[in-house]
Amino acid sequence: MPLDEEPEIPFFEVHEIVVPHLGHVPIVKGDFTGLPKKIQQFIAFYADYMKPRGIFICDGSDEEAHMVINKLLERGTLHHLPKYEENYICSTDPQDVARVEGKTFICTKNKHTSVARSRAGAKGGLGLWLSPEEAKKEMDERWPGCMAGRMMYVLPFCMGPLGSPLSKYGIQLTDSNYVLLCMRIMTRMSSQVFNLIGEGDFVKCVHTMGCPRPWRKKVVNHWPCNPEKVLILHFPEEHKVKSFGSGYGGNSLLGKKCFALRIASNLARDEGWMAEHMLIMGVTNPAGKERFIAAAFPSACGKTNLAMLKPSLPGWKVRVVGDDIAWMRFNDKGELYGINPESGFFGVAPGTNWKTNPNAMASFQKNSIFTNVARTADGGYFWEGMEDEVDKDIEITTWLGQPWKIGMPGKAAHPNSRFTAPASQCPIIHPRWEDPEGVPIHALLFGGRRPEGVPLVIESRSWEHGVMLGASLKSETTAAAEFKGKSIMHDPMAMRPFMGYNFGHYLQHWLDFNKPPNKMPKIYHVNWFRVGKDGRFLWPGFGENIRVIDWICRRLDGEDIAVDSAVGMLPKKGSIDLTGIEDKVNWDEMFTLPKDYWQSDIRETIEFLDTEVGDDLPPRLRQELNEQEERIKKM
Ligand code: OXD
Ligand code: MN
């Protein structure tokens, strides 16, 4: 007896449109024969391979989304949150709650196209490679017939504004209608994309939950998945992604990490641009001068909060272009321009509230999907961090479906629970966020959670020194991936989980941009998370971060407010505006550079890069590391 007792509810009477080379797979929605031939071939090939019971060609319309939502409500996968307009909640199988980095591979003919020539002892943390032969073996075990008894949805999507020269197209095949709904928020999904692709290139994305019918395992939370067999494969040479067994975020919304970072970084290397794990924000000072900043932070370090920062200093305005990914290119005049390839926010819910991020909160009051958060009895969402914003006695249902109240042990929401919200609903979305040309990028930031030793802000001495600061990025581990416990982990350029090719070549690609006519943006390292002797954060963070941005903007204007140090330029004492928070901030503690700490830190970083990147580490970068080490010795 199959344990998946949830037969698919048909959408409509299935019209037997039998397409010759598709055999008897019915098209339940969409005009297959009207699609460009190349797209027909792609769909036909995978329909034959995965054997779905029908094909549903999406057009991205509201009508279509409602049809799918109603079906998922009926089944119990989604629940409506009546407190808001068109907000829905769902819980996954508890075995499917995060990206699975250990099962994520890049497949290229030559191993060292994908991963650096690391030395003995390397942990292979900068991307995993699988040979095409092994990949084929793994695929043969999983994919044939993997959609049996399920619907195959065809999602045409565009990363970046429709029609922008910086945008790229993709088509995702999936048997998850949750993925369909989220991709509709996170990407520009529209039937127009089929015509825009025509017979041209597109990224082929193939996703399955990996549970063909009859499915003999127990389905938890109406979320069939196959955790033992999860596999996420990238084929940059073929512009293809194949993902098996998981419906969670980065594993399944293939436009995001798989395409917009891993595949796109390959395209970027070949075409001379950059695909980065960066937010883009526009900041306007009280005099009305606007600057755009792109900032890279490892997962769950507050990128979304920074992108939507509510400035505590009067007269400042912040507007968000993107909160996770930036595609950037130098134009003919050597100016760097960037777009946000996504159209939604897939943000970490816990910690988000009307105080820490009112703009994110406002973004998901309607048309949003919440995954693995808790529910309140009055039809709202709840997660850790919202305690002061709901009635203290309200009955809560945890993400695992248990009754719960504030103050009880355990957690209401999963630490990696998420909101998926349309970016257009953000009250501070930048009017140019969909500008096909992108926005000019004036500064790049790197940052991580560094409880010890690392000052609030460091300005790089040069482009190359900045690349070195980015390559040395580390942070405390988070819940966004499968890691357990807290430790400081390397996350160079905040790209460790998202590297699409040899990290040494990637660093060289960055170094190579510094040539005429390019005007190089200044690079900064920031750390909001330094902890004092009393165990408390030394910096209040959130809206107060504008004070650091103010300092950065004044530096961009050429103000003489920095002093040299062994690790880069630091703010001159008192040059960050602390009006109103003077008594909360201990400047000396926040900026002190403990020599022992920095000596062991640079040794450890050099050891890490030498081991992991080995002979592929660009000599120029090694030189920067050596020079930094020498300066630290002399501190
Ligand atoms: C994300 C991540 O989900 O970085 O954005 O993990
Ligand atoms: Mn991210």
UniProtKB/TrEMBL annotation:
GO terms for cellular component: cytosol. Gene3D superfamilies: 3.90.228.20, Phosphoenolpyruvate Carboxykinase, domain 1, Phosphoenolpyruvate Carboxykinase, domain 2. Residues 41-269 form the Phosphoenolpyruvate carboxykinase GTP-utilising N-terminal domain. The keyword Manganese applies. PROSITE patterns: PEPCK_GTP (PS00505). Its EC number is 4.1.1.32. Its cofactor is Mn(2+). GO terms for biological process: cellular response to glucose stimulus; gluconeogenesis; glycerol biosynthetic process from pyruvate; oxaloacetate metabolic process; propionate catabolic process; response to lipid; response to starvation. Pfam families: PEPCK_GTP (PF00821), PEPCK_N (PF17297). Residues 273-631 form the Phosphoenolpyruvate carboxykinase C-terminal P-loop domain. CDD domains: PEPCK_GTP. Keywords: Decarboxylase, GTP-binding, Lyase, Manganese, Metal-binding, Nucleotide-binding. GO terms for molecular function: GTP binding; manganese ion binding; phosphoenolpyruvate carboxykinase (GTP) activity. It is an enzyme of class 4 (lyase). NCBIfam families: PRK04210.1. Belongs to the phosphoenolpyruvate carboxykinase [GTP] family. Monomer. This is phosphoenolpyruvate carboxykinase (GTP). It comes from Ridgeia piscesae (Tubeworm).
